[in-house]
Amino acid sequence: MKKTKRESHPIPAKALLAGACLSACAAFLIYMLRINAVFIDSTVFKGFSAMLFGGCILTAAVLFTLFLLQAYHIQKRGTELHIKKSFQVLAKIAFIFMGIFVLYAAFTVIFSDFEMRARLRTVIAAALPSFSAILCIILLAWGLPLIQKKTVRCSIAIALSGVLTLSVVLTLFPCYTYKFLSDPMVIDNGESYSVVFATNDSGTGFVEYTYQGENCKVYDEAAGRLKNRTVHTVRIPKAHLNGNTYRIGSTRMIEERSYGGRSGKSLLSKDYAFAVPNGGTQTYLTVSDWHLHLQEAYNTIQYTGDYDGVILLGDAVPGLETEKDIAENIVAFGGTVSGGVMPVLYVRGNHETRGPFAAALPDYLGMDRFFYTADYGDYRFLLLDSGEDKKDNHPEYGGMVHYDKYRADMVEWLETLESSDKKTITLVHDSDLCVEEDLRERAEVQLQKLSATEIVSGHYHVCKFEQENGFNIYTDGGYKDGEYIASKLTLTTDNYHLSAWNNKGEQVFDKEIVW
Ligand SMILES: [Fe+2]
Q: Which residues neighbour 151 within 8 Å (Cβ) at sequence distance 6 or greater?
């Protein structure tokens, strides 16, 4: 029998509300997941992510509007609204789009790799209080008056008010104890030491020590104004710290304002006894490409035994999206493995040249540039920065890099160096040195002149030793398929020794090379 217009079944108000809420959640996830679509956005279809996000918001708005129409009709007339066919068609189309968006978000989350899931956790945790507050306000304002039963209405009102209050409180007042994330990391920046440490919330930072009978307290500041952030950096002359003890301190800043402000708990660390590697035999831990896999790296490093210094060969993260990336994956990691008592040589990885916080990395780490030399007794480290591993116009960089000029400057600087009688190890993230062939050739010629042909590097996530064009190139490991490999470099006057372990404690490399 043919259905009449009056006999058609309207879509229930509850379903419309659920669809609107799901669309809003999908819009939130799609916005957070937009980094996954960077290739589509920059090569195939510019604006793909924006279109998905906009479509999702529009779908949520349509479903919520239909819900309001339906629900107010029920409240006013006591019956469900027999909406016009065009409205029903609109609702069905909106539900189809909602399903597509939800499936897209769900599949993207399910098939995201470890790095993407870690990124998602961070951004969702940061945005969740504001998102929850907005959703609660909308539901309280428009949804609540539509609920017929008083007890249900009261219960939902109490629950939404609770979530709203909690969101506001969590946004305005930190509810966790202020603490250091790890021991500090003392970076040898070539000119001086940068004592870098991280806290779990924003605050000020300082380093204090006694030098030649004088008490010194050096703040993390710029032109007299203390910096308020989670990564704290203080530059100290090398002579002040060598063989000395120091402490780090920080005061939480709950609210920094132009007039006044509100501070919280102050922290002061234990004493750190700092010593530089010296003598004929020196040992260094070398690690690269941990790519957020901190625990696997820590599990491996426990097998490498003692060392006098730390060499970080880059690629701590997929990209520097937030200050937290620097705080947790570079600073706290370097602090944990060095214990704040030995120098750290930091080589920038190509993944640290990406993201909105990449340009600020030199400032965060107290470094003017990432190519320099550092001498310890009879040995010299020559640190180079290979920058990105692709040409500057690659769509992945979004027009935000100028590394060709930077690498040219580095090679020009390299060509100004004089030969040294010290045994030299060249440290670089990518042993290809430069993506520009002419620059690579110039760099190789100069390294040969400087007798700096022993290269220790990362980037390829494997542990291997190769001999090419008169260079001995060691790639020190990194993370791959659940395995992390870290290496130890031992320098002696006759040779240098390379050894490596994985996170199961198995030794995977052992080789001695005569200088
Ligand atoms: Fe890399």
A: none
What rounded mean pLDDT belongs to the chain? Answer: 90
Reading the block at residue 409, the tokens are 């400057």
What pLDDT was estimated at residue 16? 87
d(CA 503, ligand 1 centre) in Å: 20
Distance 106 CA to ligand 1 centre (A): 29
Nearest to 461 by CA among 484, 491, 435: 484
**Three-state DSSP state, 97:** helix
Domains of the chain and any CATH numbers: 5-172 (no CATH), 179-274 (2.60.40), 275-514 (3.60.21.10)
Tell me how far the alpha carbon of residue 289 lies from the centroid of ligand 1, in angstroms.
7
Looking at this protein, which amino acid is placed at residue 142?
W
309-312 and 343-346 beta bridge pairing? parallel
Q: Model confidence at 5, in pLDDT bands (50, 70, 90)?
A: very low
Closest CA to 270 of 344, 175, 204, 335: 335
- 3-class secondary structure per residue, 128-188: HHHHHHHHHHHHHHHHHHHCCCHHHHHHHHHHHHHHHHHHHHHHHCCCCCCCECCCCEEEE
Distance, CA 488 to ligand 1 centroid (Å)?
19
Beta bridge partners of 489: 284, 498
Q: Residue 41: pLDDT above 90?
A: no
Between the CA of 383 and the centroid of ligand 1 the distance, in Å, is 16
Task: Please state the pTM of the whole predicted model.
Answer: 0.83
> What are the tens digits of pLDDT across the range 271-318?
999 999 998 999 999 999 999 999 999 999 999 999 999 999 999 998
CA dist., res. 134 & res. 167, Å (int): 10
Q: Give the end-to-end CA distance of the chain in Å, rounded to a whole number.
A: 94
d(CA 229, CA 367): 17
Ligand 1 geometric centre to CA of 386 (Å): 10
Query: Which residue, 198, 196, 256, 199, is CA-closest to 226?
Result: 256
Q: Is the pLDDT of residue 115 over 90?
A: no
Q: What is the DSSP letter of 286?
A: E
What is the number of alpha carbons within 13 Å of residue 66 lying toward its C-beta? 32
pLDDT-based confidence at 83, cuts 50/70/90?
low
Q: How far is the CA of 291 from the centre of ligand 1 (A)?
A: 9
